[in-house]
Amino acid sequence: MTDTTEETPPDLLRGRDIRAFLFDLDGVLTPTAEVHMHAWARLFTPYLESHGAAPYVEQDYFDHIDGKPRFDGVRDLLASRGIELEPGTPDADPADDTVWGLGNRKNTVFNDTITEEGVAAYPASLAFLEAVIADGYEVAVVSSSKNAPAVLAAAGIADRFEIVVDGNVAAGLGLPGKPAPDTYIHAAKALGLTVLECAVVEDAVSGVQSGARGAFGLVIGVDRGVGRKVLQDAGADVVVEELDELIDAVARDTEQNDEITDAVNHKESK
């Protein structure tokens, strides 16, 4: 199990009735956040240079893009440089000089990278996922990416999740993206649970803000470089470097599992 620089409270769930974990995908379950980061850099480095704007730097990803739907990320990054483009349409050609065109250009780079290099889940995150499933918790994925199903399949973990709320689902239902809490709330409802019964697991500031704004029962931040304090300030109840640090803190005993099963069966029989 990963060493932690700040001890995880053993009573993390005291006073909380957590029955499900809602996971972000990129940067939480899989290292695809890094692939996204490189794809965005490959898009914006030459683009901003050609427009005489301030150069693209890694911090731009965290400040303007991380965790947001693709369209919002492009729009917000361009706005930070005083650049305004026509929005275009979701099916815009990647060569189009529109917000959607740029977003689709980045998506082509991302998909090519996943196809060529593949992707594997973080070992510590996979261990945590398997542990909470074995303990009887419900699980779901809530991702801004429209590539979530492909990434889950490539990582070999698609079969763990019956509920996947991704960018396609959000667009189809007209749900605003993170930091709005709507996609997480939709996942909770799909599981038949309240927000107080769900824990949000996020690595992005916008995602942590989603959990906090939605008043979820627990918001877990995974620090992949954003910074512990930044995630805490955004609303995380606890911040870890790797999710396996929390396995013992969220473990249920056999009696608890029996109680949860009885409660679910009673609820379904009504």
From TrEMBL:
Entry's Gene Ontology molecular function annotations: hydrolase activity; metal ion binding
Stated name of the protein: HAD family hydrolase
tRNA-binding is among the record's keywords: no
PANTHER family linked to this entry: 6-PHOSPHOGLUCONATE PHOSPHATASE (PTHR46193), HEXITOL PHOSPHATASE B (PTHR46193:SF18)
Required cofactor names: Mg(2+)
Transmembrane parts of this sequence: none
InterPro entries given in the database record: Beta-PGM-like, HAD-like_sf, HAD-SF_hydro_IA, HAD_sf, PGP-like_dom2
Lineage: Bacteria, Bacillati, Actinomycetota, Actinomycetes, Micrococcales
A Pfam family assignment: Hydrolase
Keyword Magnesium: yes
This protein's UniProt keywords: Carbohydrate metabolism, Hydrolase, Magnesium, Metal-binding
Protein family (similarity comment): Belongs to the HAD-like hydrolase superfamily. CbbY/CbbZ/Gph/YieH family.
Native organism: Orlajensenia leifsoniae
